[in-house]
Amino acid sequence: MAFRTVWNYCVPLTIITVACLVRSAEIQEGKGLADHHYTLKARCQAVQAENVTVLEGGTAQISCRLQNYDGSIVVIQNPRRQTLFFNGTRALKDDRFQMVLFTPRLVRITLTNVSVSDEGGYFCQLYTDATHHQVATLSVVVLPETPMVEVKQDAVEGGEVELTCVSARSKPAATLRWFRNGREIQGEVSQEDNGKTFSVSRTIRIPVERKDNGAALSCEASHPSLGGQKRVRHYRLDVNFAPTVRIVPPPGILREGDSLSLTCSITGNPLPRNIQWSKINDSLPERAEISGPTLQISRLSQSHNGTYLCQAQNNYGRAADHYTLLVYDNVSVTTTVLPIPTTTRTVTSHPTTPTLLASRFIQEPRDPGAVVETHSAVPYAVIGGVLALLVFTVICVLIVTIWCSVRQKGSYLTHEASGLDEHGEVQEAFLNGNDASQGKKEYLL
Ligand SMILES: *[C@@H]1O[C@H](CO)[C@@H](O)[C@H](O)[C@H]1NC(C)=O
Ligand SMILES: *[C@@H]1O[C@H](CO)[C@@H](O)[C@H](O)[C@H]1NC(C)=O
Ligand SMILES: *[C@@H]1O[C@H](CO)[C@@H](O)[C@H](O)[C@H]1NC(C)=O
Ligand SMILES: *[C@@H]1O[C@H](CO)[C@@H](O)[C@H](O)[C@H]1NC(C)=O
Ligand SMILES: *[C@@H]1O[C@H](CO)[C@@H](O)[C@H](O)[C@H]1NC(C)=O
Ligand SMILES: *[C@@H]1O[C@H](CO)[C@@H](O)[C@H](O)[C@H]1NC(C)=O
């Protein structure tokens, strides 16, 4: 009965100690089978080790299972075959190792703050007549950190940006994927083996326009030990572009004594820091006050007439807008004509000299008299247009009416006799004037 128990216990084990097998072989050679069984019962001491997988920084439990332990010495060694514990007593000075259990069935040690350098086979040795051991393989998993995005060069509109998503350490290698608006962007993957861990990167190249500035991208790192979880790095595109400048003109007309407030609205990446206000061919008036993008002139006088320029620039270009100020006197208040503010915008992708730039905006200040003239001419033009339209309509109606009647006649003639062609042609010519040839074609159809 006792034998059966031992037999049942020993045989299903995946590992039966060498000692056990050696013993049985010796016995089988020399003695009878019954003796052998008897010896087996007494001698079947075994150690069984379990493989362990643990996250880096975690705690590993290394267990050696014993069978029929008879008080022999149990030695546990690290992968470099340094003895950690000699029958329960610490041998190696490394506080990360602790003996937590030593029973006749189980010897267990723990290793805290596991690092990849701790990987390898840990030896569970049982010193019996013949020394034998089992190896517990410790595997360390390194989870990837949230990946980083590296940008080689600043993105400039009209160009291409190269983005590299990098996961510096993982084990096994992490998988990286780029996404934009839920769509995956393929790229080049590269993987480097840094001994125990892997460094993975995925590089994408995307063309960028101004509208892409601020666009959201993400790089996801996935790893078998993260399950379905992903470590995601969000990245916003930073697309550089030359500035645009627009002066918001004041509504209505300005008269002496009014105050002027001009605001220059600027875009650009990077946003230009300095906004320059100037007056073409002149210096800014004394009363002009500049605060950021706003130019203010209180108590306007006609000496303020002129073209005002707002300029901005960044590393990618410069831009300017101008506004022509006309200050009307108090006497001509009766005029209700609104001058149309004239502004033009220019973007130069390459910085030019201020004089060159200024010359682009040279424009004669508007003569309000001319404006009035243009406006008074408008009613005549409208009346003329309406008359012309009326005349045109009448002519059209006439032509259609004549054409219809001719068509009727035409079919009649075709039915009557073809010999009457000449007569018809004459009639057609009479009716249609210059369109005779076209009329003939109609007949012959
Ligand atoms: C333990 O790991 C080693 C090395 O990876 C392997 O050869 C062995 O088969 C593993 N043992 C068990 C019981 O899984
Ligand atoms: C080894 O340690 C075990 C458990 O403490 C003990 O029972 C056994 O006698 C020891 N063996 C030797 C040879 O010291
Ligand atoms: C864990 O080990 C690493 C090096 O492997 C060390 O830098 C870190 O301080 C350790 N942490 C603790 C809590 O001991
Ligand atoms: C025009 O009127 C304003 C007040 O409405 C006055 O301050 C200014 O002096 C006047 N200018 C002239 C030239 O009369
Ligand atoms: C300023 O502009 C107004 C409107 O065109 C014009 O009437 C006036 O003569 C101009 N004054 C000067 C000093 O140019
Ligand atoms: C500025 O001065 C130049 C030359 O003196 C002249 O040709 C140009 O018309 C002027 N521009 C304006 C807006 O007055």
Automatic annotation (TrEMBL):
Chain ranges passing through the membrane: 380-404
Q: Which organism is it from?
A: Monopterus albus
Q: Which Pfam family, any one of them, does this sequence belong to?
A: Ig_3
Which InterPro entries did the record assign? CD80_C2-set (IPR013162), Ig-like_dom (IPR007110), Ig-like_dom_sf (IPR036179), Ig-like_fold (IPR013783), Ig_sub (IPR003599), Ig_sub2 (IPR003598), Ig_V-set (IPR013106), Neurexin-like (IPR003585)
* GO CC, any one term: membrane
Superkingdom of origin: Eukaryota
Q: What is the designated name of this protein?
A: Ig-like domain-containing protein
Primary localization:
membrane
Does the record bear Membrane in its keywords? yes
GO MF annotation terms: vascular endothelial growth factor receptor 2 binding
The family line of this record is: Belongs to the nectin family.
- Example GO BP: regulation of wound healing
According to Swiss-Prot or TrEMBL, what is its membrane topology? Single-pass type I membrane protein
Q: Which residues form the Ig-like domain?
A: 144-233, 243-326
What is its subcellular localisation? Membrane
- Signal peptide range equals 1-24
> Which keywords describe this protein according to UniProt?
Disulfide bond, Immunoglobulin domain, Membrane, Repeat, Signal, Transmembrane, Transmembrane helix
Q: Is Transmembrane helix included in the keywords of this UniProt record?
A: yes
